[in-house]
Write a structure and sequence with these properties.
By secondary structure, the chain is mainly alpha-helical. Helices cover 77% and strands 0% of the residues. The chain has one domain. It is found in: Cell membrane.
Length: 491
């Protein structure tokens, strides 16, 4: 059945409600309900029951279930590294360095910490969740101490995670995109993906903007107000803010009578990061048909591996390593380990619920064929010159409406690649515009899972994070659109 313009209404309703009411859960629930109401021909009872079943069906996808489990288990890891005084030890080291910096030049440490946080986010390109999570967890206490608003930390965590994952695609993102390109009949998906990177302007501009904002100390829009508020009142968040994580996770009391050692935090986090590519190789190993060498087999296996499995296995391995380390040091016993794990999971249940709702609205939009409607509505009046800019805008709109860049890639590559072929446009530019649009829309959307994780890790109010990041993202999006128009007409 064709739903036409009706297919666009539920995600728009969810986004407007989220921004107006600041109640993301209610906004998402209403968006899901509205979607199923349309699908079930406005029958209230059928629509409501279908909504419930739609949320149950989220768990039919193994990838969704793994992501939700990962989100919950991360809470346990956060509590572990705080209980072991690992975070405290790391902060002590940084503080000593910052004192030396401050002696040389006043205000320098504030800039350096923000640069360090951004570089950390970029280096953790293996997985966006791990990147934004690590940046938020590691740097939040130092940002708080230096009087940098939580919104700024969430912005840095968000704007350094997805852009680096798409620009350095030796991760689950790259594997997913190569798979989508293969289904579109592209024989050498890896070379097309790599060739598209130089045209993927939005992630490059987003990263450049983070550095420009930090080094120039010039903020604008709501972020400028947030900086002013923190400077004048010392308040790290707005008075009516609701942080994404409860204080039990962000400031869990450490064990008394033990020394603060940085390695109690660095080792578990390093294990989580390093296990990601190892798990990708392991989960994709058997799918490789022929390889010339071990290294060639491993590089192909990364492309075939399961991203959601790799993330889940990485956090579980990290938890087990942390437990063993802390048992040996006498920091905790098995009973405490179980209690802390359950405590961490329970504190992150709101995030897991938000993930569930975000996936459910994505599924409902797929059922309504929201993305396909948007793409088809533009097909007739497009010219090859306009194609990259228009593909970027459509991808952005779909990612904004559905809150998922991966879902957007899945919808849009199936449309933009054939369109590039029909119009005789450069395939690498069109692929880049599709991928960049997914990231841009994701950065603007209040229902984006990467934005939600950034808010959670930074203990920031989620809507405040979206509002403060939006002007920066819009500037980057506008510059990107202009660049695609120039390339389109020059080509």
């Amino acid at each position: 059945m064709e739903y036409g313009f009706l297919s666009v209404i539920p995600p728009i309703v969810a986004i407007i409600l989220a921004l107006k009411t600041k109640q993301v859960y209610i906004a998402l629930l209403l968006g899901i309900w509205f979607s199923w109401l349309i699908i079930k021909g406005w029958n209230l009872l059928d629509g409501t029951l279908a909504m419930i079943e739609g949320m149950v069906n989220v768990f039919q996808s193994e990838g969704n279930t793994r992501t939700i489990m990962f989100s919950a288990l991360v809470g346990a890891l956060l509590i572990f590294i705080q209980y072991s005084r690992g975070v405290e030890g790391f902060i002590n080291i940084l503080n000593r360095r910052l004192v030396k910096l401050e002696e040389k030049k006043t205000g320098y440490s504030r800039v350096m910490v923000q640069v360090l946080a951004t570089v950390t986010g970029l280096l953790l390109f293996v997985e966006t969740s791990i990147s934004s999570l690590t940046v938020g967890t590691l740097y939040r206490p130092i940002f708080d101490k230096l009087g940098i608003p939580r919104e700024k930390l969430a912005y840095i965590a968000d704007s350094s995670s997805a852009p680096s994952s798409i620009l350095i695609p030796f991760n689950a993102w790259g594997a997913f995109i190569m798979g989508l390109l293969l289904t579109q009949g592209i024989e050498k998906p890896f070379s097309v993906m790599m060739a598209s990177i130089k045209y993927n302007f939005y992630p490059l501009i987003a990263i450049a903007m983070v550095f420009a904002v930090i080094l120039s100390k010039k903020d604008f829009g709501p972020m400028k107000k947030a900086e002013k508020r923190t400077k004048e009142t010392g308040e790290l968040m707005n008075p009516d803010s609701k942080p994404m994580v409860s204080d039990a996770v962000t400031s869990f009391p450490p064990k008394e009578g033990i020394p603060a050692k940085a390695y109690n935090m660095i080792v578990p986090l390093l294990v989580m990061v390093c296990m990601m590519p190892i798990n990708l190789i392991y989960t994709g190993w058997d799918a490789v048909k022929e390889a010339s060498s071990f290294l060639n087999h491993a590089s192909q296996a990364i492309g075939e591996g399961s991203g959601s499995s790799s993330v889940l296995y990485a956090v579980i391995t990290s938890l087990l390593v942390a437990m063993v380390m802390y048992f040996i040091q006498g920091i905790m016993n098995p009973k405490e380990a179980i209690e802390l794990t359950l405590k961490g999971i329970s504190e992150l249940m709101p995030l897991a619920l938000l993930m569930l709702l975000a996936f459910a609205i994505g599924d409902a939009c797929k059922e309504l064929e929201t993305g396909i409607y948007v793409a088809n509505a533009t097909k007739d009046w497009l010219s090859p010159e306009l194609l990259p800019a228009v593909v970027f805008i459509i991808s952005s709109f779909i990612a904004f409406s559905t809150g998922t860049s991966w879902g957007t890639f899945a919808i849009m590559l199936a449309i933009s690649v054939p369109m590039a072929t029909i119009h005789g446009a450069d395939i690498t530019i069109v692929v880049a515009a599709t991928l960049g649009g997914g990231i841009f829309g994701d950065h603007c959307s209040p229902i984006s899972d990467t934005s939600i994780i950034s808010s959670m890790a930074s203990a920031s109010d989620h809507i405040d994070h979206v509002k403060t990041q939006l002007p920066y993202a819009l500037v980057g999006g506008a510059i990107t659109t202009i660049l695609y128009l120039i390339i389109g007409f020059m080509g």
